[in-house]
Recover the amino acids of this structure.
């Protein structure tokens, strides 16, 4: 009966995320527009690591350093962009989703930059491969919310829109901190609520329930994500006795896009 009463209102929250883009840069030797086998393999790895169902479009931008004549560099940057386009086509990327193949020519360097000038120029001899991703589909689940509310029941989940993490990272982004600032204010307003901060990961090997945090090199990524949120809320003066935190590894996937599983959520434990 309790569960039925809980579900009757069907207070369902739809959680959406803004469109993303990811960038992979390929660097070239001076006055060259071909790439070696390792660079080609890195491009393939980058593409395979991207959720193909979410790729909306691809843009390719070629650049050169500031040495040489402008027309020559412009043509060289176009050839570099073309090299990357051909590599994508060879590996099964459909030409229709490559919406931009553009040579941008030379990248100028400020006159006052003299330190590490060769290195700075080498970073400008590149192609930026930009993948634009579709928005994640709306996540609609009973008992899941995107913000704390005045009325909750024990077991409600609050999945925060912007508390998602980069692969292998437990660092809070600026957007995450803005979201947690809102949570802190609401927690102080709704003084009866207590909750567990749960950290989650995705995409680990079948024999590993937990992932490695690339900053600490320890297999405690989900716990570190939960702890990062706990520490920030403590910093924002949320009482420690109203919060606990725990890492759940990959044991509680939502069965949706893997991005949803790189998450921290709050689960109401007492009202």
């Amino acid at each position: 009966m309790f569960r039925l009463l809980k579900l009757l209102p069907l207070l369902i929250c739809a959680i959406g995320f803004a469109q993303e883009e990811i960038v992979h840069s390929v660097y070239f030797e001076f006055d060259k527009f071909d790439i070696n086998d390792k660079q080609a393999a890195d491009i393939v790895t980058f593409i395979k690591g991207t959720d193909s169902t979410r790729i909306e479009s691809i843009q390719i931008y070629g650049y050169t350093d500031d040495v040489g004549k402008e027309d020559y560099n412009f043509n060289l940057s176009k050839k570099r962009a073309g090299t990357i386009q051909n590599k994508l086509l060879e590996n099964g990327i459909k030409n229709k989703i490559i919406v931009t193949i553009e040579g941008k020519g030379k990248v100028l360097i400020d006159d006052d930059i003299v330190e590490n000038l060769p290195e700075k120029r080498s970073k400008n001899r590149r192609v930026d491969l930009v993948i634009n991703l579709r928005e994640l589909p709306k996540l609609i689940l009973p008992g899941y919310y995107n913000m704390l509310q005045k009325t909750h029941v024990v077991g409600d989940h609050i999945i925060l829109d912007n508390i998602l993490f980069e692969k292998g990272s437990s660092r809070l982004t600026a957007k995450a901190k803005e979201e947690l600032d809102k949570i802190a204010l609401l927690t102080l307003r709704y003084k009866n609520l207590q909750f567990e901060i749960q950290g989650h990961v995705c995409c680990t090997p079948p024999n590993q329930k937990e992932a490695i945090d690339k900053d600490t090199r320890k297999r405690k990524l989900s716990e570190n994500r939960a702890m990062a949120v706990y520490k920030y809320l403590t910093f924002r003066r949320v009482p420690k006795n109203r919060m606990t935190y725990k890492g759940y590894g990959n044991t509680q996937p939502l069965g949706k896009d893997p991005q949803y599983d790189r998450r921290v959520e709050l689960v109401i434990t007492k009202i």
About this structure: The chain has a mean pLDDT of 82. Residues 73 and 105 are 5 Å apart (CA to CA). Residues 70-90 form the longest helix (21 residues). DSSP finds six helices and eleven strands in the chain.
